Amino acid sequence: MYQASVPVFRHYLSRISDIVAVAGPDALDARIADAFAARQQFETAAGFALRVACPLAGREVPDLPQALGPRLAVARAMLGAMTPAEFEGAERRVIRHQAGFAVLEQSGEEFLHLYGMPNFFFHLTMGYAALRAAGVPLGKADFDGFHSYPADFRF
């Protein structure tokens, strides 16, 4: 469970930091329709990373700074302090949590794969899409950090 969560969250929180650097502060107010602005989408993604990893590790979910930059840094640092040993048996832990107004109980495995990761990536993708729609020059390489394309290639 550690490998399926902590390194993934840390990688993509780093991607958000790089995306924010490309976008600049003014573009972070961009939104798609009536969804949260890109800034709030990214803040929510950072919160989800800990909201998912902490219960799996048997930790309390901490309060995070409100500002995006510090929020990303604190979330990455807290994830970096987690160890694989904390996640032993996490797939069998019962995680009771709230999704909107719904109160759910899920095994750690369901919580991570059916709730946590999809919600993290939903908010990351919505923020990315809002910035793209606003004309910020981002591509797939900016999103995942692995792809490589010529500078003028965007999709």
Descriptive account of the structure:
There is one protein chain. With 155 residues, the protein is mainly α. It has one domain: Four Helix Bundle (Hemerythrin (Met), subunit A). 55% of the residues lie in helices and 8% in strands. The chain contains five helices and two strands; from the N terminus they run H-H-H-E-E-H-H. It has a two-stranded antiparallel sheet. Helix 1 runs parallel beside helix 4 and helix 2 runs parallel beside helix 3. The relative contact order is 0.20. The mean pLDDT is 96.
Feature tags:
55% helix, mainly alpha, single chain, two-stranded antiparallel sheet, Four Helix Bundle (Hemerythrin (Met), subunit A), globular, 155 residues, 5 helices
Relative helix content? 40-55%
Named CATH topology: Four Helix Bundle (Hemerythrin (Met), subunit A)
Briefly, what CATH class? Answer: Mainly Alpha
Instruction: Report on the biggest sheet.
Output: 2 strands, antiparallel
Multimer state: single chain
Total helix count? 5
Compute the separation of the termini in Å: 33 Å
The domain count comes to 1
Instruction: Provide mean pLDDT, rounded.
Output: 96
Helical/strand content category: mainly alpha
- The shape is globular
Unreliable spans are none
CATH superfamily: dinb family like domain
Order of helices and strands: HHHEEHH
How are the strands of the largest sheet arranged?
1-2
Strand fraction: 5-15%
CATH architecture term: Up-down Bundle
> How many β strands by DSSP?
2
Rg, Å, rounded = 16 Å
